[in-house]
Amino acid sequence: MMIVIMEKNASIKQIQDILQFVEDSACTPHVSKGDENTVIGIVGDERGLVSDKIQTMSGVEKVIPTQKPYKLASREWKKDNTVIRVNGIEIGGNRITIIAGPCGVESETQLLEIAQIVKDAGAHILRGGAFKPRTSPYSFQGLGERGLELLAKAREKTGLAVITEVVNPSQVELVAQYADILQIGARNSQNFALLQEAGKCNKPVFLKRGMMSNLEEYLMCAEYIMANGNYNVILCERGIRTFETSTRNTMDISAIPMIKSLSHLPVFADPSHATGKRSLVPPVARAAVAAGADGLMIEVHNHPEKALSDGAQAILPEEFFALMQNLKQLSVVVGRSL
Hints:
Low-confidence stretches: none
CATH architecture of the largest domain: Alpha-Beta Barrel
CATH class of the largest domain: Alpha Beta
Radius of gyration: 21 Å
Number of domains: 2
Oligomer: single chain
Strand content: 15-25%
Strand order of the largest sheet: 7-8-9-10-11-12-13-14
Largest sheet: 8 strands, parallel, barrel
CATH superfamily of the largest domain: Aldolase class I
Helix content: 25-40%
């Protein structure tokens, strides 16, 4: 891939001439409009491109070759942080975004009660799984489309945007009819057919890190989505598989600032899945915010002892209220708001 940086005052025609030249060379251009410059990322077989030719074209400031395997997710293509707007919420800006709710949608009563709780506490987005990819085929697999309908009802009642998981390519269109954000979980982070289908969707995609993916592999997963035209990708560190057994996974706190240095995409943390233990969720959530996370995904349940999935890691309503107060104070310290 090469990156073409246009001059600050490049005209629309000059930009269009570059795009046409790239397309005529059987490559795909991706345009990023920054505050000062327009940047064009070129993806494809570059043997038909002559970089010297592009360098001499009108309006071009410079051409930069890049060797990173991920192109569109890199800060070379887009210097400024990506800010994704959903239902009046800015994700990736100065405000820390909180996603909260139950692991799975179990019933109308359960979901509406928890939705109101997390809204009252200050959460911005409601989470809840309608389709649940589980380790065991005998575990609760979700309510399916009925669960999606209940999420839509919760949005209507509370005004909260909703996020839910999509687990196979054939579900993308259906889930997108109900959800404001599509989630792709750790188990599916390298389901390339699903990533490509999500890339064709016009809804933001919340992509969790695979439990055994290094950061380059993880960013390549985001690249699959972006290469198919959807640049609204939110990354989420949720812990990786190590030899440690005292927690569900090992939370890679260092991945948060590392990813932010490599990529312009918003970075969230999921302390619930990272730890698997209710008592560890608040301290790890605070650590993630201190490390620079743009948001958190937290599981909350009013009766975790009765939860059909992941009850041990869901914090109680009163614990969530207390955590939100902690995070408001911490956000000021790190120069942000909640």
